[in-house]
Amino acid sequence: MKVLVDDREALLLKYLGKNYPVQKVRLPLGDMIVARDNGALVVERKTVADLIASIKSNRLWSQLLRLMKAKEILGYRIRRRLLVIQGSFWGYTNVSSINEERFWGMVFGSLISINFVYDTPCIVCENNRAFEIFLRILMKREEEGKDDALPHGRWRRKPISRLPAMNIRQYVLDAIPSIGEAHAKSLLSSYGTISDIAGSSMSRLMEVPGIGKKRAQKIYEVFH
Description:
Blueprint: E1 2-6, H1 10-16, E2 22-25, E3 32-36, E4 39-47, H2 48-57, H3 59-69, E5 72-73, E6 76-86, H4 89-92, H5 100-116, E7 122-125, H6 128-144, H7 165-174, H8 180-191, H9 194-198, H10 202-205, H11 213-223
Parallel strand pairs: 1-2, 4-6, 6-7
Antiparallel strand pairs: 1-3, 3-4, 5-6
């Protein structure tokens, strides 16, 4: 992995230079490149003041458009890009002299446009410390390729073969639409076995706390 930083970006050079070998270059686009075998991440950094000024002058949109259209940079294929905004929006403003609705309308409208129209994710770091931590996490994720894989479920049920008998019965009932864990427990508490639930009438099912007509009908349809 190679890290290239624009030679005008003193803050990036300071923070990244602590832990990574950084190559100083004059970048035609962006402020930082993280280059790997499968392509490069291009990062554009802006302070809040610079962001707002560039929105008002329309300079931001031409920058993002160039970045969005670029296929490669310094011989590296661009895989993704990111805009990092550094600083506090509210801290930047003079509260007594702004029209809040107009100001936040400009900010949020621009952020939405950056994400959706210019297809560039953006992250806000409230201060220098947050920015330093963000860089460390970003670099670690790039090193480990954590943002390259397809998403996976973070919560997984235990394999059914490892569950005790009561939990297996609960697991089966939990799978019925609109039942869920709490109602599955109520049903098993009232009936004891799935076979008794399966042989029950709708009117009897409705006597179980929390099992109304719709749930009772769904259970009945599953077993009949």
